[in-house]
Structure formats: structure tokens, C-alpha cells
User: Fold 3-dehydroshikimate dehydratase from Devosia psychrophila.
Amino acid sequence: MKTSIATVSISGDLREKLEAIAASGFDGVEIFENDFLAYDRSPRDVARMVADLGLSITLFQPFRDFEGLPEPQRSQAFERAERKFDLMGDLCTDLMLVCSSVSPLALGGVDRAATDLRELGERAAKRNLRVGYEALAWGRHVNDHRDAWEIVRRADHCSIGIILDSFHTLSRGIDPESIRKIPGDKIFIVQLADAPKIDMDLLYWSRHFRNMPGEGDLPVTDFMRAVAATGYNGPISLEIFNDQFRSGSPRTIAADGHRSLVYLMDQVRNAEPDIAIDVQILPPRVDVHGVAFVEFAADEDEAQTLSRHLRQLGFRLTGRHRSKAVERFTQGNINIIINTEREGLAHSAYLTHGTSAYALGMMVDDATATVERATALGAQLFSQRVGPDQLSIPAIRGIGGGIIYFLDEKGPLGRVWDIEFETVDDPRALADAGLRRVDHVAQTMNYEEMLTWILFYRSIFVVEKSPMVDVVDPSGLVRSQVIENEPGTLRLTLNGAESHQTLAGRFIAETFGSSIQHLAFATDDIFHTAEATRRNGMKALEISPNYYDDLQARLGLPHDLLARLREFSVLYDRDENGEFYQLYSANVGEGFFFEIVQRTGGYRGYGAVNAPFRIAAQKRALPLSAMPTEA
Ligand SMILES: O=C(O)c1ccc(O)c(O)c1
Ligand SMILES: [Mg+2]
Assistant:
């Protein structure tokens, strides 16, 4: 199936847009008229540029306010169309989009519109052109694809077809199943867009908040399944009006767009096995069975500091790499790696970001198939030279240029610790603190990157996203989005900072980019862990006494529980399924920290209600010189 994207979807001038679109693997491009008008080259030059980039123009659009007009406006509209047909000839494209009229002059009436379109079809046919009619969700008389189809059906002309746009159908809650009765050859192009569910005026929503399929909340897959059932085999074309995308990096947005289409068609193919769809077959979405390890890059001094923090948390040094300056700390099922190599990616990560958790290992069923799926979805393969006692661990690039490694139980990958590490005894080990596994990994990024990473994770792994929540930092909002799987073996929290004054924003600024800002470990007994880590010398983050007064007022907790929470600076939350306890370490380095959590019953959240108080406490704990100044 051919892929296409409208020039409105990304930023830049026409050349920059086309280059980004071609580089991302699209076959075609919809030329939005204004992008052409604002460009200073002739239509023939543009046609040549498009062809030289290996693209074709799938559509020229939009032609507005055409159908149902009284005279003399009707004749003028046909004249206008003829001039645009001239232009299309020079641009070397054969398809024009006419969107349903919003003109107060339009008279309405299915037959009147059909007659106008038939006549336009006659004129188009003389030049070997085609016209597709699209119902805008806010069209004056036609705002539903079912009505647009009835008009096209009655126009009954081989050069007139319908254009379907997922936004217009789904934003109005129209059942996409109704598409299944349209003959596939009468659908001239399919435009795709998703959007977050926001209750607002349709036109404003459409022009500012559309996003890539899979990034929003609309059932775009159901829409596309219905389209596939018609036998439609033309291009699928992204038409994304989004304020943020218009100012983003054209390469990144175009790459996200291409990924969204590959992912969408993969879902459609899986959901409609009986329909022959011409798309690449990918290995299935990947089940992650746990975070196998987290790797830090550091220099020797900072590695000492980090090791001390880990020992206070109850970790012990259990392995030393056979040939590299790499140490392994363990507790429960948790593996923390500290890499102080002076070459390779770890070292460049250290030079760029300082001490940072730059790599994540995930346990999967088939590491090779995982990388195959990820790269088919546009992820960047990562490999570096491996020494004689080293395994080549399948890996891709993740957030902030970091790495995601994949381990499985097949073959040598399942024995990586034995193969690459020698077992050591830790003379400086402190008491075990009962930490069992990684509960979640929190990644901090600029707000504009969030959709990219949501799509990245969702398209590769079996994970769902929960609604985005706003977390209040004393200096601004941070958007938080959870990506998790059903069994809870992969839980990621993505925090998007809009202001560099927030704790998250400062972290990005100080560490030069997005990365893992905190790791949360799970315990089965928070107070046991709190006592053990305290005895080990860990400094917990101090929480304001006002928080505990409010906790009592809100939840009426038993007196002794409240006293213990207060004594150990443990935060508390509960939902209908269970309870949640959170204990934070003091800051480690440039805004990095550890969290310890206990979940009881089926508590599924992350203590979002507590985040503002935790953040305020972390800001109080910053050295004075590092306090944000009032802008
Ligand atoms: O917002 C608009 O005007 C507009 C124009 C053309 C389209 O294809 C569309 O979906 C919306
Ligand atoms: Mg459209």
C-alpha cells in the first residue's frame, strides 16, 4: 500500500517539507495549495523537484466552496476550477480534492450537488483528471461521509469519487462501518488523522489538534479496517493539522508519520486476516516480561558515589565484567550496571549527559524478532564492536540517544551475566532492603517529544497508554503519561516539561537532553525497606508535615499508620483496588533520584496526587545556587 502525507502536516518551506517526506520513506505527497502559493518556484519546477525526490503528488487540495451555488457564483466556481486544473497539469498530478462547501450562498440539495459534480467530472475527464469530494465535519449542508457518498453515487461519473478523512468521520462519532458499503474504486484517496479526545468546536479541533494515527484517542484502526474491506488499494495519506507539528522538526514529524502508517496497517492486517492487504508482514508487537537491567554511564569518581547510593538501597556488587570497566549490582530481580569505560557509547553518553542511566535492558521472548519489528517501524538499530567474551545484544536507540537492549532466554543471551561477568563478593555490602524488581522507569523529555515516544513504545510493544495528567511543579506544569502493559512487567512514565524552570525541565537542561530521571523499585514491605535503607545511611527525601495533616483529613488513616508514614517520609495513595506507598531518595547528581514503592491489592496508579508535594520537597533540597530564578 502506498503512503502519502500532506504538506500541511510538517514545518518548513516546500522544499524542506518535501525532503523530509522523501527521507522518511513516503511514496507520495498531498500538495496543500498554500504551501505551493507561498513557494517561489514555478509549478513545473515543483513537479521536477517532487519527481527527483522519488515522490509523486497524490493530491492537490483544497478546492473550496464549489457545489450548490446559485448563478453567477456557480459559473465563477467552474472557471476557478479550470484554472486549478491548468495548475494541476503543470504539477503533474491528476487528483483534486473538493471539500464540502461552507459558503452561506450554498443552496444545499443532494441532486444539485450531484449535478455540479457531474459537470465538473466532465471537465476533469477532458484533461484526464479526477476529482474527489470530501465531507468536512463542519460543512454547511454536507458534513457526513454518507451524504458525500450519496452525492458521488448520484453524480455517477467515472472522474468523480469520494475522499474519506478519518477525522471528519470519527470526530462526529459517525460509525465507520458505514464505509464498508462504498465500492473501493469510488474511493479516490483516504486521508488519515487521529486526535486527542477534547470537547471543543470541530473546526478548531481539526485545524489545531490532529495528530498521527495511534497518538490520539480516535478509533482510526476501525476506520481503516472498514476502508480495507471495500477493496480500496490507493494511497493512505496523513493530513495532520497540528500547531506543535508546524513548529517541530520536519524530519522527526515525518518519521513519526511514516511509523504511524506502518503500525496502523499492521493492526489492520492482524484484525482483518481475510482481506488481502498489500503491506509488509511484521513480527507481532512485543511482550516485555520485565526490565532486565538498567545501565549507568559514569566516570570513576561518580561511579563511587553511585555505588554508595546503591549499597545504601541494599544492592550489592555481584559481578565484574571480564574485559570492560563495568560492574553489576543486584538485589531481588534488579540488575544495575555501572559502566566507566573510556570508549564506546557509554563514554560518549557520559561526556554528553554526565552520569546517567543511558541504557535499559528489556526481557522479551525473541530479541531478534523484537529488533526486526522495531526497525521496520523506523527505530534505529544500535550496534557497537564486541570483544571476544562479549555477546552481541540486539539493541535499538531510545530516548535521548540512549539504548534499549533486548534479552531473551534463547541461547547465549539468557546467560549473559555468566558469560560476560565474573562473580565477585562485595566486602562493602550493606543490608538487603527487600527490593524485588523495577516497578517503573521514568523518562523526562521536552513536552514536544512526548507524542513521538508514545507512538514509538506503542507501535513496538504490547503496551497501552493511560490518559495524560498534569503534574504541578511550583514553577510550571509537567505533563505525565503512563505507558504500561497489563501484567505490569513494563511500566514507563513519560514526563514532558514545557518550562526549564520545573524540576523536569532543569533536569533536561542540566543533563543536555531527555533521559531516565528516576527509577522506581518495588518492595513488598515499605516500612521494612525504609528502616533498612535508613540504617544503611540512605537519606530519604523529607516531606512537609502539612502533607501528613492533609492525608489524615482526606483519608482518615489509622493513627499508627499515619505516624509511620510521617516518621519515614513515606507518601501514600489508594484507589478502589488497593494502596500505594512511596519513598524517595535524596537527589543523586543532577536531579536524578530513586523511588521505592509498594503496591497492595490491585493499585494501578503512580501516586500522581503526591507528585506536587514530592517535587516541592525535591526543589527545597536543591543546593541554593541551583534554585531557579524568577524569570
Ligand atoms: O480544514 C480544512 O479546511 C480542511 C481542508 C481540506 C481537508 O481535506 C480537510 O480535512 C480539512
Ligand atoms: Mg481532509
Q: What stands out?
A: The CA atoms of residues 292 and 475 lie 35 Å apart. DSSP finds 21 helices and 25 strands in the chain. The chain has three domains: 3-271, 290-423, 435-626. The chain has a mean pLDDT of 95.
